[in-house]
Design brief:
This protein is α+β, with helices and mostly antiparallel strands. It is built from nine helices and six strands. The strands form two sheets. A four-stranded antiparallel β-sheet has the order 2-3-5-6, with no helix packed on it. A two-stranded parallel sheet has the order 1-4. The chain is elongated.
Length: 441
Amino acid sequence: MRKAFLLFWLLSLLNTASAETAADIYTLDQVIQYGLEHNPGLRSAKADVDMEMAGITAARAEMMPRLDISAGVTKYHYPTATEPLYGAPPNTHFPSAFYTTIYDADVSLSLPLYRGGRLSRALSIAELRKSAAAHLYSMNRNDLVFNLTSIYYKILQIEKIVEANEEQVKRLEAHRRDVELLLQAGTAAKVDLLRAETELAHARQTALISRNSRESAYELLKSLMGMDDTGRTIRLAPAQTEPEPPPSLAVSIDSALSRRPDYLAASKRLRITEERVRLAEGRRYPSLNLAGDYSEKAGPDAEWKENWFVGLRLSMPIFEGGAISADIARARAELMKAREEERALRLAVMREVRDAYLNYESASERISVAQKALESAKEGARIEGVRYRAGVGTSTDLIDAQTALLRAETEYYQALYDKAIARAALRRAVGDDTVELDEKR
């Protein structure tokens, strides 16, 4: 029974350890989803959208009636009436009681009826500001997805480089052992052993540098993901599917101009400046307000006396020393500036899409070239190894062939990384805000 319990306990520990290890392995989809939920910069951008939502509520409140209730007690130096004087002579009503202490309660109402379109313009501006903030949030989201994708593929590239460097160390260790045997047999020179040991030390140092670069990249990834537990060790699962090829260049440019968040935000800012021009021009029009008030007053030992009024108030600006004209001129200048900024951004978006598209095509062509170079380098290293062990090749030729193999592997993995990043850069340039999964669901 004790053995069975011990076996069950050991199996539980193994299952727990296995689950913890699996929990520390992230796919690209999981990396992006975690970053979208925990990245502090993205959360801050989301708060900006919430702030602009409150601005819309405030703009709508300006169009609604305002009702205020107040109450108080006032101490006067001279006795004051609690009810107003009213009526025409000789039937004029005079207050019957005067007090130095007056209690009052008041309900007032005000409603803007017409302000030259300024209220609706203010609401429109608030809605455009919220929409622009939402586009900026999408832009930050796209940037975060691109950065996480870039680091994800960079880590995968470094992982391959680490493996290649470690294989290079193993090859040089085997070569050093062969040189030692040939040296003992008298068929190799001492300088060959020194050369092999020097290259081996250099390869070990390169492998150490690549491992340190990998850990540094992991720390950067955890920082972008918003992972507070900096001591946590994570690893990445390799991508399982090849990203779909992008659409044509013309389609990509049209898509960018219709969905790119920063360009849409610039378009919203242009519309905001247009509304601000109309808002400034609306100051030249009259304002009409509805006002009403109901109040009651009483002394310490008197009954409450009521009074009320309802009225319309019209105001019209006649002369303000050129202040309105100056505001209109400034708003129109801001409109011209916004138009040029929108045009400049449109040209920049088109150029960025073209560059990303060309980079993707160039990286795709480099992969096939690098793959052929890698196959050639592998064959060259194999042949030089056979020749050296057969005694017809030199140690220098073998080490050079192995170094060329390492360089070909590095260039091949760099081409794979460049293609993946070029695809991600094109998605960001187009404004594609969908998360590209690395696994088919």
